[in-house]
Amino acid sequence: APTFLWARRSVFYLNCVNILVTEVFLPTLYD
Question: How far apart are the C-alpha atoms of 31 and 20, rounded to whole Å?
Answer without folding.
Answer: 17
